[in-house]
Amino acid sequence: MEQALVLAQKSIDCDPLDARAHAEMGLVQLYRGCLDESITAYEKARKINPNDADILADLGDAIAYNGNPEEAVHMIREAMRRNPFYPDRYLWHLGGAYYALRQYEDTIKTMRKMSNADQTHRLLAASYAQINDLQHARMHAELLLKVQPNFDPNEWANKQPERDEAEKEHLKEGLVKV
């Protein structure tokens, strides 16, 4: 993460008007746990290029982790409107925001739209468990372990850059119900 921080800063130093450089700084800061700095960097990127749907979707993700998943849903949906050929990560961000809102059916519907199903099993298992559909929850837990045999719900939840520790517990809660 420290090397990523240095490289993101070098990119900004090379071209302070490169929106993507600021967006990369936002991503690095997010996963360093520096949520305020992350949002500041994403906002700078959005100010430089307000029409970049990728930046808007990633800002939405950071805002969800910062405790405002409802605003995140609106931002990510706007990014999808701007880029109708959006990548799976928009759906992942949206599904995560819905999960934080406890809208598990919406999380499930969103994850099912992703083209790479291997990436969906964590949130699908947790969401199905939260609505007490343990048959589907177990199925996705098994599929997850086929893709990631060493998956640990505690480790995964603890890596999430949630501002609120209760949200990390919420992520674990769904996965350990399986």
CATH topology of the domain at 87-176: Serine Threonine Protein Phosphatase 5, Tetratricopeptide repeat
Give the beta-strand count: 0
- The CATH class of the domain at 87-176 is Mainly Alpha
How far apart lie the N and C ends? 32 Å
Largest sheet: none
- Sketch the topology as an H/E string, one letter per element: HHHHHHHHHHH
Task: Name the shape in a single word.
Answer: globular
In DSSP terms (H or I, runs of 4 or more residues), the helix count works out at 11
- State the helicity in percent bands: over 70%
Point out poorly predicted stretches: none
Mean pLDDT: 96
Rg estimate, integer Å: 16 Å
Secondary-structure class: mainly alpha
CATH architecture of the domain at 87-176: Alpha Horseshoe
Strand content: under 5%
